[in-house]
Each structure stands twice: as C-alpha cells, then as structure tokens.
Amino acid sequence: MCIADSHPEAEVIGVDLSPIQPNFVPPNLQFQIDDIEKEWTFSRNFDFIFSRMMTGAITDWKTYIQNCFDHTEPGGYLEVQDICYPPRYIDESGKGTSIEKWAANMIDGASKLGVAIDSAKGVKKIMEDIGYLDVVETVYQWPMNTWPADKKMKEIGLWAHHAGISNLDGLSMVIYTHGLGWSPEAVTLFLADVRKDMKNSKIHAYWPM
Ligand SMILES: C[S@@+](CC[C@H](N)C(=O)[O-])C[C@H]1O[C@@H](n2cnc3c(N)ncnc32)[C@H](O)[C@@H]1O
C-alpha cells in the first residue's frame, strides 16, 4: 500500500525523471516527470518528503537535502530510505567471493562516474548540518538470500534475492563499462559468477538499508 492509499486526506505528488509510474493510482496521487537535481519549481511546500532508493541517482546530496529542507513546511518531515553499498557479512563467509569483488568495483566505478553508492551513510550528518532536528537513523538488514534461520529474515532474504538478481545486469553494466572500462562481454561473464554467489546460502551477506 502506498502513502496516498493510507492517507486519503493527503495530496501526494510522485516525482521521477522517467515515466515509470503505474497506470492505476489513487485519486489523491499525481505523478510529475521532473529532474530533482534541477531547481525545484513546486508551487507549494510539503509536510512530508519521502525519498527512496535514490543512491546512485543523486550526484549532490547536500544540495538535494537542502532543497528538501527549503521546501518542507515548519514542523514537517523528511524520510530518506536507501541501500548502502557494500553488502556486509555476519562472518568471514564473504571473503574472496565474487560478491565482494563486484561490490568493491561498483563503488569504484560509480565514483568514477561522479556518484557515491554508499551515500546513505552520510545522510544523517547532512540532515543535521542543514538544520533538521531529531534526526533518527535506523539500519535494517536485508539478507541477500534465504540464508537466515529466522522465518521473517528468510522471507526478507527471498524478496531481496529476487530484487538483487533481477536488477544485477541493469545496475552493473553502465558502471562496469563506462566507469571501469570493461567490455560488455567481460561484465556478462563476471556477473554469472556474482549470481552464483548471490544464490549461495553459505555466504552470509546482507544489505544495510
Ligand atoms: C532505484 S529507482 C527508485 C524509484 C523509486 N524512488 C522507488 O523507490 O521505487 C531510482 C529512480 O530515480 C530516478 N531518477 C534518477 N535521477 C533522477 C533525478 N535527477 N530526478 C528525478 N528522478 C531521478 C530514476 O528514473 C529511477 O526511477
């Protein structure tokens, strides 16, 4: 359920660069195609701004969060939810794996393209420096596959695994080819190994969220 469904009294605006939005949406929700790194031209300020999974998309987090601050009503809120590269491990099982190499390369390649895919770790400080009060950071763990014994974490791992595997090519190709100079064929070959490791329940990896 989205924010517009759970708060029918609210007017909700969804913003993205691309027309990725679904066709059927609640009547209190409208989508706008816009570049949020350009000047914000909304005609009003917001009570609540929600930013999700924008790491790798935003090149300048200070300006982005300053824009959020400047367009929040007094007493309003900003919530930022994001993944933070690299994946972590609860033990030594990640050492020397393709996942470990893949993620280190992702961070390096993305930084060569001018974006930080570990931006989430800096968000709390940026918010505090800009003037947000009572900033709370909560780090959740999304297991990379169904390796945990706990039933709930296993289920989160199942979802995270599907999301990770299905987005792997799309996430990696530009960063590896344009950022690191790999050929598309070399990337495809390497990702086959990464996929194998992502499926391996002996590797106890999780994404910090
Ligand atoms: C990983 S997706 C997250 C989508 C959505 N926020 C969510 O949580 O489901 C990142 C999105 O950011 C959008 N994006 C990238 N740069 C942007 C920009 N400068 N302004 C607005 N959207 C942007 C992309 O089009 C892409 O849909």
Automatic annotation (TrEMBL):
Residues in the signal sequence: none
Gene Ontology MF terms in the entry: methyltransferase activity
| Pfam families assigned | Methyltransf_23
Q: Which PANTHER family match?
A: 2-METHOXY-6-POLYPRENYL-1,4-BENZOQUINOL METHYLASE, MITOCHONDRIAL (PTHR43591:SF24), METHYLTRANSFERASE (PTHR43591)
Record's protein name: Secondary metabolism regulator
Taxonomy of the source species:
Eukaryota, Fungi, Dikarya, Ascomycota, Pezizomycotina
